[in-house]
Amino acid sequence: MLPDKAKLLLKVFTFVMPYLTQHLIERFQPAYHRFTYEALASAKNVVVIGGSFAGFELAKHLCESLPTGYRVVLVEKNSHLHYVFAFPGYSVVRGYEDKAFIPFDDIARRAPKSIFQRIQGEVVKITDDAAFLLSGAEVPYEFLAFATGTS
Predict the structure, then answer these.
(1) Which of 10, 91, 121, 147 sits CB 3.0–4.6 Å from 55 for a disulfide?
(2) How far apart are CA 102 and CA 54, in angstroms?
(3) Does residue 121 fall inside a structural domain?
């Protein structure tokens, strides 16, 4: 008969093990993806419009999981993610102001090279297969996701 501590440890282990396994898979999947992804000149665009929290995370996840033949294009008017909700705190505590602006360059840190492209601009028109920017540039896409702002 098992002591109570051993029973408790066994229950905790059986509860935590699936989550730990999933976490390890999610941690090592981008490293595997980096070696198996091949950059193609004819890669189709998956365009994410907006670099708010949803757009940032979506682009990051896509960079780490899209198959060969696709690339992520993030279209955002700002150069950094503005963490607006933290601004009041940064205005009171000195020395942390630079942490309020999160650069978009870290999105593809763990992703394969040439899978990510960031375009700084505003989308003014969308058709079935392209997004048109205020600058006049056209961004063709195979898939499109909206993730604009918090309001």
Answers:
(1) 147
(2) 14
(3) yes
